[in-house]
């Protein structure tokens, strides 16, 4: 192998055979091609405006870059491992197309600020895509919420039946979580939106460049203030991965619940054919593969975060090739998260709610015991702790008789607390319990309708 034509001047021998396999990033960073071309366009225009290269050179460069863009789009561009990465692949092809002008493009620039710029552009777009997919998911949840304002289901704490809630209320809880995820991606995109281009290798450049111009051309709010920081910081990638990890954990919770809920033991929901698979051996099966895969992919996304945090944690300023390890972690996380969000949106919009089954299980386990205690407090002026105790005894009696609280004869309750009147019956059904939870953010249908209205406006 001959010496590399990009830095051949000082090199006599080529790389060891194994290095040709080990060092290239072209296998994955070709995904930055679009960003790299745009970065080069902005840089070349700036060089021409500043009189660092001629208009003639600029035209040759821009024409060459357009040809390369077309070649990549049409799949005729030949990515070469010997040229290491996307930056050198494009520059080398540009030399074939534009001649000596191509050699002037790298003036006042280094691959270090180049890759940092490309990668920021890519992550910025990934934040937008995550947001779009999160909106789809919120809309699917909102659709189910709207249809299920009075669908009562058990609300759990410790996975024990606690108090009844509505399915709409449940859906809205996830809409809130995914809403916060959106703000995390938006924050990430906003904070990363500064341009490293012009930081050059690490120290800046003696050329009279215009960093405001290149920043503006690429849609950045401003150039980064410090060139050492510009080439070396990857906290924007970590922020993306952190936001992705948190969104993935929300997805994982939701997916995990769906896996439980579609099992015969619960039977709360039925997933559509489109989002389930059969078993090759057990004909009765209808497996929630999509939900399980979404749940499983969370591990991958968190792993990506941990991996990149570990890569950057001990690095000295400024650039080190360790940083080449950043891209695959982010690509991998995005490739896991984006389809997971879309699949969950489709699966959730498609699912059928078994309202009868939810209602039946909502009754199990004396979920209106708190309502009884509250009645004792409000009507008999009992201290809550005493009411709690009395209610415990009444629940025990109901259990002995094998009936729900709203089917326990009044006399049985009066044997335990003589002051109880027939009025208590109106708070003991799950419907009454839900309707009573009128506090702000509570599960009462009127409150839930307010939440639905809020999100309908917001997601318009
Ligand atoms: N392929 C490299 C990366 O992904 C580009 C920057 C290389 N710079 C250098 N000085 N080796 O980070």
Structural features, described:
The protein has 460 residues and is mainly alpha-helical. It starts with 16 loop residues before the first helix and ends with a helix. Strand 3 (194-195), helix 9 (211-217) and strand 4 form a beta-alpha-beta unit. The chain contains 19 helices and six strands. It has a two-stranded antiparallel sheet. A two-stranded parallel ribbon has the order 3-4. Strands 5-6 form a two-stranded antiparallel ribbon. The site of arginine has 10 residues, from helix 7.
Distance between the termini: 59 Å
Order of neighbouring strands in the sheet with most strands: 1-2
Shape: elongated
Secondary structure class reads mainly alpha
Indicate the radius of gyration in whole angstroms. 31 Å
Strand content: under 5%
Unreliable residue stretches: none
Question: Sheet with the most strands?
Answer: 2 strands, antiparallel
Bound compounds: arginine
Give the overall pLDDT as a whole number.
Answer: 95
Q: Number of helical runs? A: 19
What multimeric state do the chains show? single chain
Give the SSE order as H and E letters: HHHHHHHEEHEHEHHEHHEHHHHHH
Q: What is the topological layout?
A:
Layout: H1 17-22, H2 26-29, H3 33-49, H4 55-74, H5 86-98, H6 100-105, H7 111-147, E1 152-157, E2 160-166, H8 167-191, E3 194-195, H9 211-217, E4 222-223, H10 227-232, H11 235-261, E5 269-270, H12 289-312, H13 326-350, E6 352-353, H14 355-363, H15 369-380, H16 384-401, H17 410-416, H18 430-436, H19 445-458
Parallel strand pairs: 3-4
Antiparallel strand pairs: 1-2, 5-6
Helix pairs in contact: 3-4, 3-7, 3-9, 4-5, 7-8, 7-11, 7-13, 8-11, 8-19, 11-12, 11-13, 12-13, 15-16
The structure holds arginine (ARG).
């Amino acid at each position: 192998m001959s010496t590399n034509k990009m830095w051949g001047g000082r090199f006599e021998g080529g790389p060891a055979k194994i290095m040709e396999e080990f060092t290239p990033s072209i296998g994955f960073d070709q995904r930055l091609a679009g960003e790299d071309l745009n970065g080069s366009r902005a840089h070349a225009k700036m060089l021409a405006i500043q009189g660092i290269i001629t208009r003639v050179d600029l035209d040759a460069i821009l024409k060459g870059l357009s040809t390369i863009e077309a070649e990549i789009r049409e799949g005729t561009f030949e990515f070469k491992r010997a040229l290491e990465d996307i930056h050198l692949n494009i520059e080398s092809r540009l030399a074939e197309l534009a001649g000596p002008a191509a050699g002037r493009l790298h003036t006042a620039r280094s691959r270090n600020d180049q890759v940092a710029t490309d990668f920021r552009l890519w992550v910025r777009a990934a934040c937008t895509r995550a947001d779009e997919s999160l909106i789809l998911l919120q809309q699917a949840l909102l659709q189910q919420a709207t249809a299920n304002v009075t669908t009562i289901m058990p609300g759990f704490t410790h996975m024990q039946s606690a108090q009844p809630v509505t399915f709409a209320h449940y859906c809205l809880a996830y809409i809130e979580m995914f809403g916060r995820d959106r703000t995390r991606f938006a924050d990430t995109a906003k904070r990363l939106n500064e341009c490293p281009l012009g930081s050059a290798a690490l120290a800046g450049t003696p050329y009279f460049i215009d960093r405001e111009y290149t920043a503006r051309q690429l849609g950045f709010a401003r150039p980064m203030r410090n060139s050492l920081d510009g080439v070396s910081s990857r906290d924007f990638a970590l922020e993306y991965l952190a936001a992705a990890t948190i969104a993935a954990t929300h997805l994982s919770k939701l997916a995990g619940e769906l896996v439980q809920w579609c099992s015969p033991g619960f039977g709360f929901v039925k997933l559509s054919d489109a989002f389930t698979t059969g078993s090759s051996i057990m004909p009765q099966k209808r497996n929630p593969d999509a939900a399980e895969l979404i749940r499983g992919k969370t591990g991958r996304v968190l792993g990506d975060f941990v991996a990149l945090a570990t890569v950057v944690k001990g690095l000295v300023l400024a650039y080190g090739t360790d940083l080449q390890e950043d891209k695959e972690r982010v690509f991998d996380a995005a490739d896991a998260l984006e389809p997971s969000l879309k699949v969950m949106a489709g699966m959730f919009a498609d699912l059928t709610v078994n309202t009868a089954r939810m209602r039946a299980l909502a009754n199990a386990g004396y979920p209106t015991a708190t309502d009884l205690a509250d009645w004792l407090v409000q009507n008999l002026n009992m201290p809550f702790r005493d009411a709690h105790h009395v209610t415990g005894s009444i629940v025990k009696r109901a259990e002995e008789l094998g009936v729900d609280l709203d089917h326990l004869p009044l006399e049985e309750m009066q044997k335990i607390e003589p002051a109880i009147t027939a009025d208590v019956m109106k708070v003991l059904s799950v419907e009454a319990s839900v309707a009573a939870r009128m506090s702000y953010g509570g599960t009462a249908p009127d409150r839930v309708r307010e939440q639905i209205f809020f999100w309908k406006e917001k997601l318009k």
